[in-house]
Amino acid sequence: MGSNTGNRSAAPRKDRDQLIAGILIGTIIGVGLAAGIAWYMMKSPTPFLQKAPLADKSPAGSIPQSPPAGTADSGVNDKPRFEFYKVLTDKQDKTITAPPKPADKTRAADRKPSVGYDPHLLQAGSFQNADDAEKLKAKLALLGVEANVQSANIPDKGVWYRVRLGPYKTAEEENLARNFLKQNGVDSTPIRAQ
After folding, report:
1. pLDDT of residue 14
2. Cα–Cα dist 22/91, whole Å
3. What is the DSSP string of 102-166?
4. CATH of the domain at 127
5. Which of 86, 106, 156, 175 is the most buried (most CB within 10 A)?
6. Going by DSSP bridges, is the β-strand pair 158-168/120-127 parallel, antiparallel, or unpaired?
7. Domain-embedded: residue 132
8. Using an 8 Å Cβ cutoff, are 142 and 134 in contact?
9. pTM of the full structure
């Protein structure tokens, strides 16, 4: 009977040794595959790096490019440090024309105020939360429209934040701006400027 108990302890030990050996072999194979993939990725060319300068493909007679910033010939760095101002102002849909800007002096000289027309503002929204008003103002800025956020204390309702555009001196300017906003999914209400 004593010999049977010795055989039982040997079987679990053999299974445990096989498990450890399997884990070690799997780890070695995994590390080897990872090293092989890393080596392959390091040796293959990446599409994101430009290794050689591109040939100048500009048409003959075009304006020559200025030297890169930081060279001895350039003097002062002509390139703006941030380009998001240009991106914001150029981000307009080609099919929709922007409304006239109310502060544009040249347009004001071309258009005479309508007889009997009081300057108006366009109210694009009114919010209890200042962040919501700022989000609408940012959306309008991306459309190329300048807006202002004004706070108003309304009795029994608290502080409201109004997003307004203008003033518009003619009914034509106001209608153009209102139609532009409507085309871009923003409803607006005309309000007499005070």
Report:
1. 82
2. 59
3. TT-HHHHHHSPPPTTPPPEEEEEEEESSHHHHHHHHHHHHHTT---EEEEEEETTTEEEEEEEEE
4. 3.30.70.1070
5. 175
6. antiparallel
7. yes
8. no
9. 0.43
Question: What per-residue confidence (pLDDT) applies to 46?
Answer: 61
Which two tokens mark 103? 């502060």
Residues 35 and 114 in one domain: no
Residues of the chain with confidence (pLDDT) below 70: 1-11, 45-117
* Maximum CA extent, the chain: 120
Structural domain total, the chain? 2
The pLDDT of residue 133 is: 95
Q: Are residues 123 and 184 in the same domain?
A: yes
Find out whether 102 and 167 touch, Cβ atoms under 8 Å.
yes
The pLDDT, as a whole number, for residue 51 is: 54
* Total number of residues shown for the chain: 194
Bond preceding residue 167 cis, omega within 30 of 0: yes
Concatenated DSSP letters for 26-51?
Answer: HHHHHHHHHHHHHHHHHHSPPTTS--
Q: Do 33 and 103 belong to one domain? A: no
What range defines the domain where residue 112 resides?
Answer: 95-192
Tell me: do 114 and 35 sit in the same domain.
no
Residues 105, 182 share a domain: yes
User: Is the same domain home to 100 and 14?
Assistant: no
